[in-house]
Amino acid sequence: MPFDTFIQCPWCKTQYPNANVSHCTNCRGTLEYSITSDELGSEPPIAPRVLPTKFKRRIKYTGNVMTLIGIIFTIPFFWTILFPLIGIFCWRRGLRIANDELIPLEQGKATVGEIIDIRKDYTQSLNGESPSIVEFVFKVNGKTYTGNVGNIYESVHLTKKIGDKLWVVYMPEEPEKSSIWPPLV
């Protein structure tokens, strides 16, 4: 690999030179999945799992467009009627989307899944760059479920490819609620 290659922590986005580092020194999140693209790595710990605080904050607030819009519409315009109503709706929707990702990561059961598609989402853009969406499949009790992870602004296609195996954590009562373990940066 080139010398200028960096490993990015999927939990807090801290970057490390490509070295033999197994855990992030900033948040203690595992880096083993960031080092290789096609190896499965260790099975996720048994639930309940404690996620790094910076990661939870990013998913709920700083990296969540709906929550940010909700906060912007609600707090500065609290004295109006229409903006806070729109803001509260967006804020709640953003938190619901975040919880749909966080709850399986914290409480879900682990299984092996497979990436079936990696594509750009051209309906969104941040600083002129469109995010990637990673679609995956996994089986629970003989039934196949499909999930996806979006808003990945890093070059996921440089580290992952269609057919790669990965860990999926899902809610046993609602397998359609699932996330990739560890999250893709």
TrEMBL record:
<keyword id="KW-0472">Membrane</keyword>
<keyword id="KW-0812">Transmembrane</keyword>
<keyword id="KW-1133">Transmembrane helix</keyword>
<protein>
    <recommendedName>
        <fullName>DUF3592 domain-containing protein</fullName>
    </recommendedName>
</protein>
<feature type="transmembrane region" description="Helical">
    <location>
        <begin position="65"/>
        <end position="91"/>
    </location>
</feature>
